[in-house]
Amino acid sequence: MLSLKPEKDFLLLILLTILLNLFILFEMANSLRNVFGLLFIIFFPGYVLQATLFTAQNDLKIVVRIVLSFALSIAIVSLLGLALNFTPWGIKLHPFIIILSLYISAVSLIGIYRRSKLPEEQRFKIKRIKPTTLINFIGSHKVFSVVLVGAVVFAMFSVYSLVSTPRYGGFTEFYLLTSDKKAQDYSEMVKINKDIEFILGVANFESEGSQYTIKIQLDGLTKMSIGPFYLEHGKKFQETVDLSPPADYIGSKIDCVLLKNDNKKPYRTLHMWISKGNGELS
Length: 282
What we know:
The chain is an alpha+beta fold. It has two domains: 162 residues, no CATH class; 103 residues, Immunoglobulins (Immunoglobulin-like). 43% of the residues lie in helices and 23% in strands. Strands 6-5-8-9 form a four-stranded antiparallel β-sheet, with no helix packed on it. A three-stranded antiparallel β-sheet has the order 3-4-7, with no helix packed on it. The protein is elongated, with a radius of gyration of 28 Å.
């Protein structure tokens, strides 16, 4: 009977994961990418987990391992997706592929280590299984059948949604620097009756191009407007701002307001004050 040597299954999955990342990064081999992508979501995550938890050959039957791999994969993918949803990256293709690849690689290495603690003859090996054996097992275990079919359908929908639907929920970075491009010590920038000079920056991480406008307001009144300007994903924009408020503006508030696309509601706002105590910007 043909069998795969211990640890070779983990190494094979790591290799396939690396290949999938290369296919996605260089946008090549669409057919292979789709096949690996489907297995990457509905089978690989659950397989490495069950193989790591049950390292001995006699821990589980092979058909149970297969069904368990599908079921666990859906749970793992859902949890990772939920976790990504609370990060600045959101549930987008590349962050999702990276986090799932790291998970598969890390768990595989743990599995290799755990198997190495067992005598070689006791370690789990993948043996050739007849399709009829798997079909008969699924047919005689209705619960496994329902779980397996549901997992496959849900995973196929997830793959289609992930690959074909544009992902949003990113963020735009809006920042202020001193004239010497430092992000602190605003109180040392300038005194009243002298030009207030600072740099405003915008970086787009929205996963789509966006249009921005910056408004500089002094005590709620717009004194300067920058834009509108358009930024593709991953691009940034910087503009030097010069203001010359008179002496009676000591204690006033400077607002730097970022507007996105056609939305009139501020998307990001930065605040500064002209100090009453020493007539400096703080």
